[in-house]
Amino acid sequence: MRNMAKENPGSNPKKLESLIPRNEFVVVHLLVVLLMGFMSVSQGRFIVTPTMQRGRDVPAMYVLGDSSVDCGDNTLFYPLLHRNLSLYPCNGSDSSLLPHLLAEKMGLPNIPPFYSQNGSIEELLRGINFGSAEATIMNPSSQNYQSLNQQLRQVFETIELLYLQLSQRSVIQFIRSSIFYLSFGKDDYIDLFLRNSSGALLEYSSQEFANILATQMVHVIRNLYNLNARKIICMGILPLGCTPRMLSLVSDSNNSTNGGRKCVEKINKLVLEYNAMLNEQIVELNAELPDAHIVFCDVYQGIREIITYPETYGFEDVNSACCGLGPYGATIGCLSMEMACNEASSHVWWDLYNPTKAVNSLLADSAWFGQPFSGICRPFTIHELAAASVSLPSHNHLN
């Protein structure tokens, strides 16, 4: 894997292309976007990169992830094929999710889903949400949602499109100044516990499984770096054992209880293994890759703090979903917004696995400024990441 850092697949599209699985539907979609982009140029529309022209340190954010970044809007046939998740996994829209709350703090416009693009180069420069509800790090057997590698291919082809219409130096400056946000792993563990469709539980120990996931994340970070990404946020997995769905599936005798606050610690232990491995490897990447600014954000730590001291942060219910039916509101997920509780802000959990906007807002504040939960993002806050300067290659290294 270290040999990849010595090459630069970003300057050799064929090399990188061989590393990423192809998705025929994505290719067709990008061809349509490409055609529309050329049409916009042929019609005389003047394209200007937004880098440093909007008075922002970060011109755009590109999001890759699972149900922690997508409410289903970017997942093909989601209303019919939402499998383990709720029909409405967010309390309102994507704007209630962590990456969008952080984008708002950066002064960025709403980040559109990949499949809702209008094909213009201007929209590509605004940032894109490649994330897909139920997306996994390991390649899925189902094709109704995009795995981590499939989303990486979408990023690769989007950047190719930028190179076709803008100067090489402009694109490199834009990509290096933009932020790439990665949030994966939750749905891999959900799949592992509920369905074991990947067969991983039979083949690997918990430590081996965590190592496979963390290694794949590092592989993607290296590929993004080779595409000239320099500012990267990598999110850990939330305390999955405290979610309503896991509480409903595991008998209370196996749950830890603290003043009525319950969690399945054997599940949390597995998630913590992955978080620790990913954090350690990100420390190594920051030391190894020149000019890299890679931040690990420990959402597990923040949510456990809320669950332990709910009154301090204004929460009343730390176990049950705001929207759902059955024990802990988790036998049936959120099928309609009319099913939701009256005060979502008093609940930690919105549905089976996802926190409410109130929780995400606290996490966004902590990730941005380090308060109220200090140190959840390391080695520095997202505010410091956004303000970090990045170098540009000399003219001798540009075509």
UniProtKB/TrEMBL annotation:
<dbReference type="Pfam" id="PF00657">
    <property type="entry name" value="Lipase_GDSL"/>
</dbReference>
<keyword id="KW-0442">Lipid degradation</keyword>
<comment type="similarity">
    <text>Belongs to the 'GDSL' lipolytic enzyme family.</text>
</comment>
<dbReference type="InterPro" id="IPR036514">
    <property type="entry name" value="SGNH_hydro_sf"/>
</dbReference>
<protein>
    <recommendedName>
        <fullName>GDSL esterase/lipase At1g71250-like</fullName>
    </recommendedName>
</protein>
<dbReference type="GO" id="GO:0016788">
    <property type="term" value="F:hydrolase activity, acting on ester bonds"/>
</dbReference>
<dbReference type="InterPro" id="IPR001087">
    <property type="entry name" value="GDSL"/>
</dbReference>
<dbReference type="InterPro" id="IPR051058">
    <property type="entry name" value="GDSL_Est/Lipase"/>
</dbReference>
<keyword id="KW-0443">Lipid metabolism</keyword>
<dbReference type="GO" id="GO:0016042">
    <property type="term" value="P:lipid catabolic process"/>
</dbReference>
<keyword id="KW-0378">Hydrolase</keyword>
